[in-house]
Amino acid sequence: MRQELMARLVREQAARDTFLATISATGKPSLPSILAMTSVDSSNQAWLRPILLAHGWPRRAVLDSVGIEAVFLIVQHADRDPEWQAAMLPQLKAAHLDGELDGQSVALLTDRVAKAQHRPQVYGTQTTFTGRTPIVDPIEDSAHVDERRASMGLPPLAVYMQILDSMVTSSGKH
């Protein structure tokens, strides 16, 4: 399973690198980069979904941290199946409470699910791009977002936005 996960992770990251490179170069993503990313994400989700339904969230005793990160990224990027993402969230939270998964992963999926359900996000991890500029999607109780972010091991929102901005405006290096 790990070898297949690593191959899928390489394809997934390559599609995202191309997507970000087109935004960096032109201020907007290209249709081919969007289609490539969607295709990879759909294929990954179709492969992983039955495995997780049968076996649950992987533990470090079975899969190393890089493999678990690959599983997380597939779930996080399965935007064509937001119900599955929402169904996976309790498993991620349980893995985090057991010390098997970092808080950042839980925060990212929590916000992704909230956004898909048209609710304000909790941790401020989800953005929408306006040209080359990332704009934070609506946040619930934004006055206390940095406290919630810190509780999950995330940097303050202002630092996160600087990181996102540098990813897009850099000379193609991500």
Give a brief rundown of this model.
The protein has 174 residues and is mainly alpha-helical.
Verbal overview:
With about 170 residues, the chain is mostly helical. It contains 7 helices and 2 strands. The protein has helices at about 1-25, 30-55, 65-75, 80-95, 105-115, 145-150, 155-170, and strands at about 125-130, 135. A two-stranded antiparallel ribbon has the order 1-2. A hairpin with a 2-residue loop joins strand 1 (about 125-130) and strand 2 (about 135). The two termini are about 25 Å apart. The mean pLDDT is about 90.
Structural features:
single chain, 174 residues, mainly alpha, two-stranded antiparallel sheet, 7 helices, 2 strands
Q: What portion of the residues fall into strands of 2 or more residues?
A: under 5%
Order of strands across the widest beta sheet? 1-2
Q: What's the Cα radius of gyration?
A: 16 Å
Q: Find the structural class using helix and strand composition.
A: mainly alpha
Spans of at least 5 consecutive residues whose pLDDT stays below 50 are: none
